[in-house]
Amino acid sequence: MPLKKEPTEIRYLYKFKFDDGTEKNFEVVLNSTTLELIRDDPKSKPEWTRLKFAQCENCPLPDTIEYCPVAISLAKLVESFHDAASYESAAVTVETAQRTYFKQTTLQKGLSAIIGIYMSTSDCPVMDRLRPMTRFHLPFANSIETFFRSVSSYLTAQFLLMRQGHRPDWELKNLQGIYKEVNLVNKGMTTRLLKATEKDANVNAVVILHSFGDGINYFIDSGLAELEPMFEVFLKDPTAQENVADVHDPMRSHLSR
């Protein structure tokens, strides 16, 4: 049965409410098919959004591009919090079509979640590899949740590649390479934001994303050891899966005899 047709747009509404009663709202709107950010570019683009301003060392964009697409997407958010401190307390609510999330947390953690969406959907050739994860965005995710979503997303891509006749990377070798490139972008954006803001909320939000990128390599190198106990039902008797497959595929069962 085909999945129910999705709306043409996916919306994530972030609401920040502070102890002094002030509120700031930001809505992220994505094309539901491509997951590309539907944005309203600022009329006056800050100098720090120019491509050549603290350009990421691995930036693949040509010199004909005047502005960094990620920086442009972040401009309004960064300006709104340019004088905010990382550990300022905030009640953060995230509204989606399916459910609402809420957490009393630090501003840097709330900003990290929304900045991660912007960076992955803004047509940066490096960050685009993480774009599928935004379809299943999980605000306030911890490390293990983020790692699981990342690996699951990548393995889904490998399955689709296999279906198209290409060689899949089941060993996750290229995923580590992707995150090395992503971390260079995180480093570059941190440098930009240091020059674009007075206090550290925006900067440390990107630092949090960088720490996830660093952690994924250890997570893969460890053989996903933290996840292994959860899959014991599969691992304790690998042949059971083959028997289940035979039940649903009589021809395969017949040929194996």
Verbal overview:
This protein has 257 residues and is α+β, with helices and mostly antiparallel strands. The protein has one domain. The chain is built from 8 helices and 4 strands; from the N terminus they run ββαββααααααα.
Q: Trace the largest sheet across and list its strands.
A: 2-1-3-4
Number of domains: 1
Sum up the overall morphology in one term: globular
List segments where confidence is low: pLDDT < 50 over at least 5 consecutive residues: 250-257
Please write out the topology.
Layout: E1 9-18, E2 23-31, H1 69-80, E3 89-95, E4 100-106, H2 107-120, H3 143-163, H4 173-196, H5 201-221, H6 232-235, H7 238-248, H8 250-256
Antiparallel strand pairs: 1-2, 1-3, 3-4
Helix pairs in contact: 1-2, 2-5, 3-5, 4-5, 7-8
Summarize the structure.
The protein is an alpha+beta fold and 257 residues long.
Defining key terms:
257 residues, alpha+beta, 4-stranded antiparallel β-sheet, 8 helices, 4 strands, 44% helix, 13% strand, disordered C terminus
